[in-house]
Amino acid sequence: MKVRLQSLSVFMTLLIFTFNVLAADPEKSGSETPKVKTENPAGRETGNESGNTLSPAKSIKTFTHLINQPFAGSQSPDDAKVAAVVKGKTEVLEKAGTYLESLTVVENFTLTKDQSIALASGILTVDILSQKNYATDEGFGLILELKIDVDNSLMNNRVRQIQEDRILIDKYSELKEREKELLERIEKLQKQSKDLAKNASADKHEKKKKLNKDLDEAIQALPAGEWNKKALALWEKGKYIDPEKAIEYLTESIRMDAHNPVSYNNRGVAYYNIGRREQAIDDFNHALLLDGKYADAYNNRGDAYFEMRRFNQAINDYNEVIRLKPKSVEAFLDRAAAHKNLWQYRLFLEDLRKAFLIDPNLSKKPSKQTSACLELNELEHLCEKAKIACSMGLCNSQKFLDARGFCK
Q1: In the CATH hierarchy, which top-level class contains the domain 3-43+297-403?
Q2: What pLDDT sits at residue 41?
Q3: Which of 12, 61, 112, 303 is deepest in the core (most CB within 10 A)?
Q4: Which phi and psi (to 5°) does residue 238 adopt?
Q5: Which of 106-110, 212-216, 243-247 has the highest mean pLDDT?
Q6: Given its phi and psi angles, is residue 214 left (phi above 0), alpha (psi -120 to 50 degrees) or beta?
Q7: Dihedral sign for Cα atoms in the order 305, 308, 312, 313
């Protein structure tokens, strides 16, 4: 999450004093370092300053595709159709992938082919041109002819938003990954069902019953992604523009697929957007129960704790983000902000130093891009004040800053 802090001129003077006397009483300070949020949990704004111009193209290119979807057991033709449409959409977008990647709007923004497909999957709809059911000795199935129109102007509009809020493409990619997981699970279960039909065993009936149950659950989870996409269509500039409606969509997504941590994480963000911090934390907790390595959920929960002034808990969550993503500049900066609010200035500066090591150009970036816990160019003033203090015989802060490479 992006954060910006107020001017720290007074703080810089106080910080020098704090280092030199090696003690501070946080109870005597009425100032808190706020994280002035330009966006809500679920990511950080990382704008593209390359100056590239988006493609003005307004053309539409159509792709068609045939998909053969078998079904058996307790599956109904409708279940098979749901799976076929999702699978077919994936395959037709794979076919269109090279074209999507070649679009100027995508190329200038350096989206990968997979990211381009994830984006298209999130904003484009598929139409069924024809449907044919069939039966064979091995079971039943259907053949669908699908069509998808790639609207360049629609792609351009969403990419403009991604340029301002890079987390958006990560969200589309998360949904695509879940869709891929479910399709792979369905294919695996269908193969197991076929293999089971060829074998005779005492517990065949129970195994078949469990396979059918698992298969039904996976197929019924597929439409959950569409509700997630509906919520994502409400995402602008780092937050949901209609959080209540997003909560409604995401609750329906969770009802269909209760095992997807992304839905809980996204709904937690929507709760956060309307100030319902405890409910947001509950959803982030649930996301982490489903996926203990979900860095974004740790980050979002840390941000919620920060806003509630539970800085130690926020630091614990930022620690997890850094463990999972050691190159996350924003996590170091967020943790630094929490340390500073606890008057832990040595840890605060250590985190700033680590952020600079990862991104040496951090101080040159506009504040809206840094998510910094202070205006980074203020470090120059800090060094100047440290030198003045040292000339008066108070050199602790100068030595501390020099040892960590802040002051040249």
Answers
A1: mainly alpha
A2: 59
A3: 303
A4: 85, 10
A5: 243-247
A6: alpha
A7: negative
CA distance 42 to 295: 10
pLDDT digits (tens, 9 = 90+) for 128-161: 899 898 887 767 788 889 888 888 888 778 877 7
- The residue that leads in pLDDT, 53 or 388, is 388
127 three-class SS? strand
**Whether pLDDT at 335 is above 50:** yes
Going by CATH, does the domain composed of 60-222 fall within 3.10.129? yes
Assigned token pair, 6: 């107020």
pLDDT class of 27 with cuts at 50, 70, 90: very low
Kindly list the distances between the CA atom of residue 386 and the CA atoms of 9, 335, 402, in Å, as whole numbers in the listed order: 13, 24, 10
Could you give the CA distance from residue 296 to residue 288 in angstroms, rounded to a whole number?
A: 10
**CA 286, chain centre distance (Å):** 16
CA 72 to CA 141: how far, in whole Å?
8
Q: Which of 257-261, 345-349, 364-368 has the lowest mean pLDDT?
A: 364-368
Q: Hey, which residues does 68 pair with through a beta bridge?
A: 143
**Cα 291–chain centre separation:** 14
User: What phi, psi does 235 have (nearest 5°)?
Assistant: -90, 120
Q: How far apart are CA 267 and CA 250, in angstroms?
A: 6
Query: Can you tell me the distance from the alpha carbon of 226 to that of 390, in angstroms, rounded to the nearest whole number?
Result: 62
Contact yes or no for 80/133 (Cβ under 8 A): no
The residues spanned by each domain of the chain are 3-43+297-403, 60-222
Name the token pair of 203: 């517990």
In our burial notation (b when 16+ CB lie closer than 10 A, e otherwise), range 289-305 reads ebbeebbbbbbbbbbbb
The residues that bridge with 272 in the sheet, in sequence order, are: none
Side-chain half-sphere exposure of 156, counting CA atoms within 13 A: 15
331 and 290 Cβ atoms separated by less than 8 Å: no
Please give the pLDDT value at position 109: 58
For residues 283 and 253, the answer to whether their CB atoms sit within 8 Å is no
Please give the Cα distance from 381 to 63 (Å, whole number). 59
